[in-house]
Specification:
The protein has one domain: NADH Oxidase, CATH 3.40.109.10. Helices cover 43% and strands 13% of the residues. The protein has eight helices and four strands, in the order ααβαααβαβαβα.
């Protein structure tokens, strides 16, 4: 699979098979992503791959917290609002997914169950937590985003599925208690990793993309 094929094939998968990925495959994915460029070669990423009993403990505690109505407490604060065009795309995503699932707009219980999947880590056998030193600036967030894309493309090459999801880091205090991430690191983002259950209805919706001409400006050509 070449890079263009991986870019076309990659999509966010929300239901996974329980089959674990071999440790050597996961390590090779991380090694490939480690070639990601970063500002002045700072390489700000710190990576934690969580599986097995520690992940099951996280799953249990996350679900308990969500069901109790405990609000997320991200290390990197969530945006308070989005510009109108971006907010519209967020709304289109939700509407498209719920339509695919056959969930009505006023069915709050069904919608809650869909949201709960985030706090179950989508049933994935592995979760990758991407962290960086708290003293780093927003410049390094760009590098961490680039690293995550490299990681997802490398996973696609190996026939694996991923989903980047901020709710995977909704309760950083719980993560630190279970896997001992030091306080000097911000837990920035999470990616679920595994063999996707591609037959699941939750994996049937694919997000549309803007026409390139909407955002591309080619100057001097």
């Amino acid at each position: 699979m070449n890079v263009l094929e991986a870019l076309e094939a990659r999509r966010s998968i929300r239901v996974y098979k329980p089959t674990p990925v071999a440790p050597e495959v996961i390590k090779s994915i991380i090694e490939a992503a480690n070639r990601t460029p970063s500002w002045a070669n700072t390489q700000p990423w710190e990576v934690y791959v969580v599986s097995g009993t520690p992940l099951e403990n996280l799953r249990k505690r996350y679900l308990e917290s969500f069901r109790k109505g405990i609000e997320p407490n991200f290390d990197i604060p969530a945006p308070k609002s989005w510009p109108a065009a971006h907010d519209e795309r967020i709304n289109q995503l939700g509407a498209g997914r719920f339509a695919t699932l056959g969930i009505e707009r006023d069915d709050k219980e069904a919608r809650r169950k869909v949201t709960e999947m985030n706090f179950n880590f989508f049933g994935a056998p592995h979760v990758i937590f991407l962290c960086m030193d708290r003293d780093l600036s927003h410049w390094s967030l760009f590098d961490l985003g680039s690293f995550s894309m490299s990681l997802m493309l490398a996973a696609q090459h190996h026939g694996l599925s991923t989903i980047p999801a901020v709710m995977l880091v909704a309760y950083p205090d719980i993560i630190r208690e279970e896997i001992d991430i030091p306080q000097n690191l911000s837990i920035v983002f999470g990616l679920a990793l595994g063999y996707g259950d591609l037959d699941s209805i939750h994996n049937q919706y694919r997000t549309p993309r803007r026409n390139v001409d909407e955002f591309l400006k080619m100057v001097g050509m």
